[in-house]
Amino acid sequence: MSVESAYLVPGSPLPMVKRDNPCRGEIASPMEAAGERLRASKPDAILLYSTQWLAVLDQLWQTRERSTGVHVDENWHEYGDLPFDIRADHALAEACVAAVTSAVVRSKEVDYDQFPIDTGTIVAKHFLVGDADIPFVICANNLYPDGETTEKIGRVAAAEAEIMKRRVAVVGVGGLSGSFFRHEIDIAEDRIAEPVEDEWNRRVLDLLAAGDLEGLRAVWDDYCKEAKVDMGFKHLSFVLGGLDDHYDSAEVLGYGPLYGTGGAVVHFTPKS
After folding, report:
1. 129, 180, 206, 253: which has the highest count of C-beta atoms within 10 A?
2. Cα separation of 7 and 170, whole Å?
3. pLDDT value for 22
4. Phi then psi for 98, rounded to 5 degrees?
């Protein structure tokens, strides 16, 4: 199997732009730890799915060999710009476009200068890759395909990596519970907005850590509905697809609030 490691990480910029805040550090430190593990697995490329790169008509894939620019987050713009410099594995991305179009859903390449790379991808690159020279295959969050279809997309992408003899890390970027505070809070007193959402987040993370995917699938729809989960948890669907729906272990490196929403850092060890 070509997948060396896999991760679930939040896409909020707060741990990156407000790293000095103790509450944010509780997410930033686990993301840094995940980055150390990812780089230690020495992948040739990273297969990344971000809930924040939204697509409608087709399944989009970033194929531009180098994307550079400055992004301004639509929610947290007051904390400054987010510069980015991301290299793509052009050949693997092209192969994913062709294979996913053939097997799952129509796909299309994205290759033009100054493309607006999304916040979640930038945050993941910052923490997981840093200055290391590891290229990405970035997959958009198509709003129409459901979790089952998204899982197939992740599975096909990982299979293409194996065909091309690429060792890859699979990364799903997105949140857990989705209730933001809609009023200004003391950021040092941040918490999950609703107790029931905190309970659901912890329950689902326990199921992941226990490797109980049958139990997870049994509560998946209820969790997404009752906790307002980010994009129906499709970022996890992509990761599970990349892992071919099984793994040796999953470790929750961190969990905490992000202005009311839930965020977690999870490291999956693929089946050996």
Report:
1. 129
2. 6
3. 67
4. -65, -45
